[in-house]
Design brief:
Layout: E1 2-7, H1 13-27, E2 31-36, H2 38-47, E3 51-54, E4 62-63, E5 66-67, H3 69-75, H4 79-97, E6 101-105, H5 110-117, E7 121-124, H6 140-157, E8 162-165, E9 182-184, H7 199-205, E10 214-218, H8 226-235, E11 243-247, E12 263-266, H9 272-277, E13 281-284, H10 288-297, E14 301-303, H11 310-321, E15 325-327, H12 335-346, H13 349-362, H14 367-386
Parallel strand pairs: 1-2, 1-6, 2-3, 6-7, 7-8, 8-9, 10-11, 10-13, 11-12, 13-14, 14-15
Antiparallel strand pairs: 4-5
């Protein structure tokens, strides 16, 4: 069985959940390869676990922790050319690898390429609608752009054999045209929570004191996390904890000069869920994979969604509705206020109780195994159709 994974390369979440799938497929004897771009490609190259091919870059623009929709739209006037270039490169990679099935994680040119080449395609996505026009209610061009993108995403997603949503039931809106091929699988995780060792064992493994109060900061692989990192460092002396573990992605240069014994700096790590599980509080952007890991582990959090980022805003709102996360916007805070919010979250017993209840709810799902089963079934059908052998 040959599986080609083609995830969106922006941030780390898409790659992280695809690696979780790839690891399980490899255990079952599958031949897995990747094609991606951006920080996702860097992450795959650094991991050195799978054959990885570079795809043309796709970029979003912004600064100071804020996504600039207008500037991104202006910079995307050549989108049709970028789409055609992507399809050209994807087709070369697909013809070279000859997969039985293709898994595209939020990378919307892939279903077109797969359809043209007649290879089954499974789309993994946690977002099938867009809402960024709400950010600019008086600007018709943004509304027209959103409507066009919605139609594009719906039409392209409809070319897939299946759409898998790595979340619990009814967590997102599914367009009527896509409901028959869409399925909620539950979170895709590298490790199920019950497979992770207990807090005492992991802290001992990492050389950390069992009684220490630990905060984990994770900002993904994009530049948008830099402002959050600086805020944490500026606030660190006022935060009432013993250790602040900061994890930055492969494309973030952590160049802040803070030599506090309290701060532990790390570049990308592949055992993030272990670090989450030993933390008293996690502070993060609001990427979907991160929120699913936090909910599944039952860890209280402070989420700082990228400003003007509709998907992250939705993710954060879901976590706030579960009453296990506090939402902050750095635009309206200074480091001292941020430290006060962190200290309040650390002392919030209701946050901890709710996190345990949500963990129990999410424990009913094993999204990774469900996705593996679906991928394997389509790969098997493809093999029989082409009269080839595993």
């Amino acid at each position: 069985m040959k599986v080609l994974m083609m995830p969106c390369g922006i941030g780390m979440g898409h790659i992280s959940r695809c690696i979780a799938i790839a690891n399980k497929l490899s255990e079952k004897g599958a031949d897995v390869a990747f094609a991606s771009y951006g920080s996702g490609y860097d992450m795959l190259i650094e991991a050195r676990a799978y054959k990885t091919v570079k795809l043309p870059d796709i970029k979003f623009y912004g600064n100071g922790g804020e996504l600039d929709i207008k500037h991104t739209a202006k910079k995307s006037l050549d989108a049709p050319f970028i789409l055609l270039r992507s399809i050209y490169h994807e087709s070369k990679i697909i013809k070279n690898f000859k997969p039985d099935v293709i898994v595209a994680d939020s990378h919307y040119s892939v279903p077109i390429t797969s359809k043209v080449l007649g290879i089954p395609c499974i789309l993994i996505t946690n977002e099938l609608t867009l809402d960024f026009s709400k950010l600019y209610p008086d600007e018709k061009p943004i509304e027209y752009l959103e409507n066009g993108l919605k139609r594009f995403i719906t039409d392209v997603s409809g070319l897939c054999n299946a759409i898998l949503i790595p979340d619990i039931e009814n967590s997102i809106e599914i367009p009527p045209k896509l409901q028959k091929i869409s399925r909620f699988t539950g979170p895709i995780l590298k490790n199920m929570p019950d497979e992770i060792a207990n807090k005492e064992e992991i802290r001992k493994k990492f050389g950390l004191n069992i009684i220490d109060k630990i905060i984990l900061i994770t900002v993904g692989g994009s530049e948008f996390g830099k402002k959050l990192l600086k805020f944490i460092c500026d606030a660190s002396e006022d935060i009432e904890c013993d250790k602040i573990v900061i994890v930055s992605g492969p494309q973030i240069e952590f160049d802040f000069n803070y030599n506090s014994d309290k701060i532990i700096k790390m570049k990308f790590i592949d055992n993030m869920m272990e670090w989450m599980s030993i933390s008293d509080l996690v502070i993060s952007l609001a990427g979907h994979t991160t929120t699913m890991e936090l909910a599944s582990l039952g860890i209280p959090s402070i989420l700082v969604p990228i400003d003007n980022h509709p998907e992250q805003t939705k993710n954060a709102a879901n976590m706030e509705n579960y009453e296990i996360s506090i939402i902050n916007n750095l635009k309206y805070l200074n480091p001292k206020d941020f430290a006060a919010n962190i200290n309040s979250a650390l002392a919030d017993e209701n946050l901890k109780k709710n996190a345990e209840l949500v963990k129990k709810k999410f424990s009913m799902y094993n999204g990774t195994e469900k996705v593996i089963e679906i991928i394997s079934n389509y790969a098997l059908s493809s093999v029989y159709a082409n009269k080839t052998l595993f």
